[in-house]
Hints:
The protein is built from 20 helices and 27 strands. The strands form five sheets. An eight-stranded antiparallel sheet has the order 3-2-4-1-10-9-11-15, covered by helices on one side. A seven-stranded antiparallel sheet has the order 5-6-7-8-12-13-14. The protein folds into three domains: 3-247, Glutamine Phosphoribosylpyrophosphate, subunit 1, domain 1 (4-Layer Sandwich); 255-457, Glucose-6-phosphate isomerase like protein, domain 1 (Rossmann fold, 3-Layer(aba) Sandwich); 460-608, Glucose-6-phosphate isomerase like protein, domain 1 (Rossmann fold, 3-Layer(aba) Sandwich), CATH 3.40.50.10490. Helix content is 36%, strand content 23%.
Amino acid sequence: xxxxxxxxxxxxxxxxxxxxxKRLEYRGYDSAGIMMYDGNSINLSKTKGKVSDLEVITNxxxxxxxxxxxxxxxxWATHGEPNDVNSHPHFSxxxxxxxxxxxxxxxxxTIKKELLSRGYKFKSDTDTExxxxxxxxxxxxxxxxLGKAVQLALTNVIGAYAIAVFDKTKPNELVIARLGxxxxxxxxxxxxxxxxxxxxxxxxxxxxxxxxxxxxxxxIIKKGRxxxxxxxxxxxxxxxxxQELKLSLDQIEKGGYDHFMLKEIYxxxxxxxxxxxxxxxxxxxxxxxxxxxxxxxxxxxxxxxIIIACGTSWHAGLVGEYLIEDMARIPVEVEYAxxxxxxxxxxxxxxxVIAISQSGETADxxxxxxxxxxxxxxxxxxxxxxxxxxxxETHAGAYTHAGPEIGVASTKAFTTQITVLTLIxxxxxxxxxxxxxxxxxxxxxxxxxxxxxVEQLLKIDPIVKDIAHHYMEATNCLYLGRGFxxxxxxxxxxxxxxxxxxxxxxxxxxxxxHGPIALIDENxxxxxxxxRKGHYEKVVSNIQEIKSxxxxxxxxxxxxxxxxxxIADHVIEIPxxxxxxxxxxxxxxxxxxxxxxxxxxxxxxxxxxxxxxxxTVE
Length: 618
């Protein structure tokens, strides 16, 4: 959600900043802008629309490409509608300061009224323009340097932010700060150049050394000098923790696929392997997870486990509830992080909280983590991004090792999160003795086959594409599943909604008779997960009820199924596996169906409207 890029050094800043914005497009945005400083004047271009629209403008105004210092921004509107004026960067009233900002300043209206009383005028409706003018007012009244002015201004701010600020009167530096919104600083050789971005993807070809600011930290970067980092609230110096990036350029490029989403669907066999590699030894029946091993007593003695997440991660958490309760016999509750933090939940030191997030930066999940910690609970994180806020905020955790996920609609994040939750469930079951050694070994050996089975499923893509043709004109769809596959039905419906904008809802199959059955007619496609394990006969009955009301049935069944094949309009077969592992397979055809329908409808698959990859504001 929103993206920041910046550069200071000896290279031409424009191509670095503009290409950085392109790398951040996956975050979701509605406008874009860029500022270049040419040594004498600030040159700014910004527009509603895409980075490509911004390039059209900058190509006509060559002067705006000149300069060794630049900052850029892609905006996802919060305060003020998406338009040219509200786009970032924003000037202070004097024109000396320029800012780009991710996040929300909650008390901006109070600050704005005070600034108005002091004679300031505002061109935009944004909280960001208020912030840059607050910094200017502090700088003027306190007669201090930019870094100190930013620090003092931020102590009066309530909200979340990642900011980069430039001062024309001190044109050799940038000031960076964060609270609740991620920002990274890439460090060139001998500190001769610096890169700023919301994540490391914009600068991975230039440097492998990066500093991720912690919440409540401010950094001053100057060409040829070491980064200075300090705490915003107490001015205490901080020793920068510079990390080596593991990201590679080919990981964030499409690699010949039409869309990142399709690439990431096809990366799932490898992503699942990378997630369980080194963690399970099927032949020995061993599961090694340091975050669990080092804290096993907290899990085994827990009164309950609370899983907190949002969106697709919440659906993975629901699968985790089924897995942990079935295998380890520990009570589990799954909560929307956004609701959990506001409903005065009962949390005790005997609770274990598992927080799930692909990005590790989800604002609601981070806030829920802090709440749980304040109540004494042990918090375990499951996320994909090394060094992310959730990885740093939790007591322990496990990375999913899915690799970068650029498409807004999560695919490999879901299957790798389920993989981690399966390993956790088996590890706890092993420690508690709720599953026999034979049963654990069987699960591990069966899990080892999952990546190959996913590869098999991907080969039926042409069949799925043909089915998509039949239902691309649908206006509503139902998704049904039972047991372990009820959350998959929810996830399948979410994928269709996200990228095709077709209304879809997921339900437990048995709940159809409690209301949704009223919607069934010849125009209603119903996607039913009807694998042979579990509640097969019950689901078959549900399918017959749909058929008798002329509903269109698309069924996902186990290979060799003949019963459902006689009833359904279309059938997609998945390989045989343990019931608890079926979500790793049943979700694949639903991802492909959503993808193909969206492409056929001409939708922007990787950047669906109104959505952002990482929701870093409430």
